[in-house]
Amino acid sequence: MATINKFEDLEIWIEAKRLAKKIHTISLETELKNDFRLKDQVKASSGSVMDNIAEGFERDGNMEFRQFLSIAKGSAGETRSQLYRILDYGYINQAQFDELKNDYEKLSGKIKNFINYLNKKDFKENKFQ
Fold first, then answer.
1. In the 3-class helix/strand/coil scheme, how is the chain assigned residue by residue?
2. Per-residue pLDDT tens for 36-77?
3. 77 FRET partner, CA 20 to 30 A, in 17, 58, 108, 112?
4. How many Cβ atoms sit within 10 Å of the Cβ of residue 79?
5. How far apart are alpha carbons 78 and 61 in whole angstroms?
6. Would you put residue 35 in left (φ > 0), alpha (ψ -120 to 50) or beta?
7. pLDDT digit string, tens, across residues 10-22
8. pLDDT band, very low/low/confident/very high, at 116 (cuts 50, 70, 90)
9. Count of alpha carbons within 13 Å of 99, Cβ hemisphere only?
10. Quick one: average pLDDT of 120-128?
């Protein structure tokens, strides 16, 4: 793996950003816009995925980065849980739910794989290579 110099280059951050934007669009275009608490919760948790990836990357070392990646993975799970409520309340249809749920499951898997990669490496620098 080549050295990554900024979090914006991380595939997991790019995917988290894409998914947060999809959640935001749903919050504007569906009746979710009127369910203020759930709308705020799902926007916060989806944004937390990308934000924790970025914050962890900007920390001083890989140990902290792994911790923030773990938090990001947890936020992806929280977002998936909220998607069930969004489906149950009729704000999205089954196809929209299935796509988002699958995308978040894939992202969680990628974050887990990245954590595992970082755990197996013997890093001599502050940032991973």
1. CCCCCCHHHCHHHHHHHHHHHHHHHHHHHCHHHHCHHHHHHHHHHHHHHHHHHHHHHHCCCHHHHHHHHHHHHHHHHHHHHHHHHHHHCCCCCHHHHHHHHHHHHHHHHHHHHHHHHHHHCCCCCCCCC
2. 999 999 999 999 999 999 999 999 788 899 999 999 999 999
3. 58
4. 28
5. 26
6. beta
7. 999 999 999 999 9
8. very high
9. 10
10. 58
- At residue 129, the pLDDT reads 47
**Under 8 Å between Cβ of 104 and 79:** yes
What is the sign, positive or negative, of the torsion defined by CA atoms of 93, 98, 103, 104?
A: positive
CA 38/CA 44 separation, integer angstroms? 10
Widest CA span of the chain, in angstroms? Answer: 51
